[in-house]
C-alpha cells in the first residue's frame, strides 16, 4: 500500500493506493472519524454499481456504518443540477445530517457530482473519494467539484476537499481499455508539466499500464497524484501555479465541445491538446525533441495525437474563446518549455493557435 | 455613516450603514477592487427593481463598471435550483468571468440566492450585498447562502463571505410595514442573545423603528449586525457558539413549515418562537421577568407572540423533528438564561416543548 499526503493546512488529507483496500474499507472510515451514528450516502453510477456497490455496502455495514446509496446514469450528462436535486432528496429521505458523509464510488463524473453534493448539502458535509478510474486520480486531488450547465462544463461548483481518498487498484480491472488509455493521458500530463524522469518511466512502462498491471498502475497513480498534490498544495484556489494543470486543456476542451457525443473522451481530447501545446512550445523556441518525446509518451499509451479532419477549425476556435480560462479578454495558454517544465503565456496569438489546429488536422 | 467590521481573518469585510450610500456606490466598488473590466451582475427581485435597479445601474455604469442585471420573482420560492440555473445562464450570456462580481440588491431572499450563485459560479466569484430589508441585516452577516429544496429550506448552500455590505437606509423607506416589523424580530433577537442594554434601547425606540426613522433604524442595524458579527467571528462554520443565533428558530421554522403560504413571515414566526424559548427558560429556572421583557420587546415592535389556534400541535412537533438542527438524533434548543444571555440545551424534553406550544396556542 502506498500513501501520499495532499498538504493543504487544516484541509490536508491522505490518498491510499493499493490492491484490495475495499476489503478493509471500514478501518479507514473509522480512522478518519466518519460518523457511525449518522447515515452516510454512497453515490455511484450504473456501470460501477454492479461491480462494487454491494461489496462496499456490505463491508461498511459490517463495520458498523449506516449506509444509504444512490445510483446515477453513467456519463458526463449525470453532472447536472437535476441530479443534485435528486441526490439531496435521497439524502434527506435517508436521514443524512450535518455529521454524515458523502462517498463517491466511481470515476471523475461521480466524484465531481458527489463532491458538489457534499459541498452544498447543509452547506457542506464530509466527503470521501473511492475512485475507480485512472482519470479520477486527477479529479480526486485538489477538491474541485462541479456540475455542468447546458451552456458550459463544470461551471457550477465549489472547492471541497475530501477527508481521504481510497484507491483500490482491483477496481481498475473492470475498466474498459479505452477508459484506461484516456486516464493515462492525465498521468502523462503530470509528468510533462513537472517530472521528466516520470515521463521516461511512462514511456518505458506504457505497455504494463495499458494492460492494467497493478504494480505499474499503482506507481503511475502514486506519481500522478503526487505531482497534482504538489501543485495544488502551493495554490489551492487556482490563482496562478495551479493553471499549469491545464496543459492541453485549452485545445482539449474546445475539441470536446465541437466533437459529437462520446466521439472523444476527455483524456483523448487533451492528448491531442498536449501535442498542440508542444507545437506551440517549439514555436516559442523549445527544441523539436519536446514535441517528439511528448508524442512518444502519448502514442505509447495508445492515445490519439491528431484532430479528426472533419472538425471545423473556426468552430474549435470559437469554442476556445468561450472557455472560462479566458479571463478579462486575454488568451491564456499553458506552453511547455522542455519535458517536465511549462510556462503560462498570457498572450498567445490566436493566429498561431489557428495554424497549429490546421497542422493537427492535416497530419491525420 | 456607520462602519462595522466582520472579523473573519482573510475573509474579513466591512458593513457600511448610512443614508444615500447608493449615490456614491461606485466609490465603494472601486475601493474594494471590484473589476471594471469584467462585467458584474446585479440580482434583484421584481418588487425591489422598480425602486432602485435603474439608479444603481446608472451609478455603477457612470463609475466605469460593466453592468448586467437579472430580476427574479419576489418571495421565498425564488430560492431555487431552477433560478440558480437561470442566473448562471444570464451570467454566461453576460460574459461574467472569474474576476466578475455578483451583487445582491434586495432582501434576504435575493441575498441568499445571489450569494449561492456567487459561491458556485465558476466555483466562486466575488459577492457584494446591498440589503434593502431590515431582516437582511441578519442574512448579510455570516456568509450563509443557500437555496431551498422542495423538502427542506436552505438545504443546498455554502459559506461565502461578501467583499462588503452596503446598507443604504433610504432604500428601507419603501419597505411595507409588515416587513419592517418582521425584520425587527431579528434585531430584537440579537439583543436577547447578547446585549441587555440594546434590548432596553429597542423597547424605548420601538416606535421610531416601526415608523422607519432613519436614525433609529441606522443604530438598530448597526447594533444588530454588530452582535451577529461578533458571534460569527468566533465561530464561522457553526460548530458551537453560532448556534445561539437560532434563538426562537426551532419553533419558528416549524411554524413556518406548518403555516399556509405567506400566513407567517419568518420574523413573525421566530417572534413567537422566542416567546416559546423564554417560557422554556423560565421552566429551567430563569426569572419570570425574562418572559415579560421578551414579550414587551417583541410586542412593542408590533410582532405576534401567540400561535394561531388552528395550528396543529402534532404537525408542529413533527416539523420540528425534521429540522436540520437535530443532529444525530438529539434535540437541540437555544434557551435564554436572562435577557442578553442564552445557553444551548442539547436534551430538551419533547414533552415540555409540546406543553409550551399548547400554552402559546391557548393564550391566543
Ligand atoms: N475535479 C477535477 O479536478 C477533475 C479533473 C479531471 C477530470 N474531472 C472530471 O472527471 C470526469 C471524467 O472522469 P472519468 O474519465 O473517470 O469519467 P467517468 O466517471 O464517466 O468514468 C468513465 C466510464 O467508466 C465507467 N467506469 C468507471 N469506473 C469503472 C470501473 N472500475 N469498471 C468499469 N467501468 C467503470 C463509468 O461508468 C463511465 O462510463 C469529467 O466529468 C471531468 O470533468 C474532474
Ligand atoms: N443567510 C442568512 O444568514 C439568513 C439569515 C436570516 C434570513 N435569511 C433568509 O432571508 C430570507 C428572508 O429575508 P427578507 O425578509 O428580507 O425577505 P425578502 O427578500 O423576500 O423581502 C421581503 C419582501 O420585501 C420586498 N422588498 C425587499 N426590499 C424592499 C424594499 N426596499 N422596498 C419594498 N419592498 C421590498 C421583497 O420583494 C419581498 O416581497 C429568507 O429566505 C431567509 O431564509 C438568511
Ligand atoms: Zn483534465
Ligand atoms: Zn432568522
Automatic annotation (TrEMBL), chains A, B:
The protein's Enzyme Commission number: 4.2.3.4
One GO molecular-function entry: metal ion binding
Catalyzed chemical reaction(s): 7-phospho-2-dehydro-3-deoxy-D-arabino-heptonate = 3-dehydroquinate + phosphate
GO annotation (BP), single: amino acid biosynthetic process
Principal place of residence: cytoplasm
Signal peptide per UniProt: none
Cofactor: record remark: Binds 1 divalent metal cation per subunit. Can use either Co(2+) or Zn(2+).
Domain of life: Bacteria
Any one Pfam family match given in the protein's UniProt record, by short name: DHQ_synthase
Residues binding NAD(+): 74-79, 108-112, 132-133, 144, 153
Domain 3-dehydroquinate synthase C-terminal: 183-325
GO cellular component: cytoplasm
Cofactors, names only: Co(2+); Zn(2+); NAD(+)
Domain 3-dehydroquinate synthase N-terminal: 71-181
Metabolic or biological pathway, per its Swiss-Prot or TrEMBL entry: Metabolic intermediate biosynthesis; chorismate biosynthesis; chorismate from D-erythrose 4-phosphate and phosphoenolpyruvate: step 2/7
Cellular compartments annotated: Cytoplasm
Record: residues binding Zn(2+): 186, 249, 266
First-tier enzyme category under EC: lyase
Keywords, comma-separated and alphabetical: Amino-acid biosynthesis, Aromatic amino acid biosynthesis, Cobalt, Cytoplasm, Lyase, Metal-binding, NAD, Nucleotide-binding, Zinc
Its job: Catalyzes the conversion of 3-deoxy-D-arabino-heptulosonate 7-phosphate (DAHP) to dehydroquinate (DHQ).
Family designation: Belongs to the sugar phosphate cyclases superfamily. Dehydroquinate synthase family.
Protein name from the UniProt record: 3-dehydroquinate synthase
Organism this protein belongs to: Paenibacillus montaniterrae
Gene: aroB
